[in-house]
Amino acid sequence: MYHRAVPKLWNATIEAHRREVRDAVLDTTASLIGKHGLGAVTMSQIADETGIGRATLYKYFPDLEAVLVAWHERQVASHLQELAAIRDRAGDAVDRLEAVLDAFAVISHERHGSEIAALLHRGAHVAHAHDELARFLRDLIAEGTRAGALRDDVAPQELASYCLHALTAASGLASRAAVRRLVKVTLDGLRVPR
To answer: Which fold has domain 1-62?
Structure first.
């Protein structure tokens, strides 16, 4: 039995190792699904491809769904960071809003197949990300309204919801050009009526 605390450096090294193993598992799972489809991927394949034992994999994740949810949570967080970075760029509110809407539409367009999307888009992490994105769209719209560039006859929160719902349709479009047209139509709906 140890009578003193384990050095922090050792704890930090273990935590870094755990993160690396977890990330490797998530990356491997995404790759396997991309190659073979969701229905063909097993925990054994994930362990083999990652280079870890099955027992180790099960210490990290109890089943395939838990792996997928963790991977999706990481993807959603990454998308939110990307959208926040676009929002925080220099420039006027309408230009930044258009850039955020365009990036969100592209993310929606490139979303994985319906089988995996149906499984993963029901989690609390998706609702949280949606709320966060709606908040910063609302703030950009309010800023554009104050500048006189966007309509003031509809509340910014309603317009943010309109944008999110409209641009989710990008997932069913055939091309990036169609996605871009959808963004333009959505943004035109926010502009001051003539």
So the answer is: Arc Repressor Mutant, subunit A (1.10.10)
Instruction: Give yes or no for a contact between 64 and 73, defined as CB atoms under 8 angstroms apart.
Output: no
Place of tokens 């034992």: 53
- Return d(Cα 48, Cα 78) in angstroms, integer: 27
Nearest to 189 by CA among 146, 88, 131, 158: 158
Sequence-distant (≥ 6) Cβ neighbours of residue 21 within 8 angstroms: 50, 52, 56, 60
Compute the distance between CA of residue 42 and CA of residue 90 in angstroms, rounded to an integer.
Answer: 46
pLDDT tens for the 194 residues of the chain, in order? 444 444 556 667 888 888 999 999 999 998 998 888 877 889 999 999 999 999 999 999 999 989 988 988 888 899 999 999 999 998 999 999 999 999 999 988 887 555 566 666 667 888 888 899 999 999 999 999 999 999 999 999 999 999 999 998 998 888 999 999 999 999 999 999 87
Residue type, 166: A
Whole-prediction pTM value? 0.78
- 30, 101, 123, 186, 190 from 36: Cα distances, Å: 10, 32, 24, 36, 42
Domain positions in the chain: 1-62, 64-194
Q: Domain 64-194: give its CATH architecture.
A: Orthogonal Bundle (1.10)
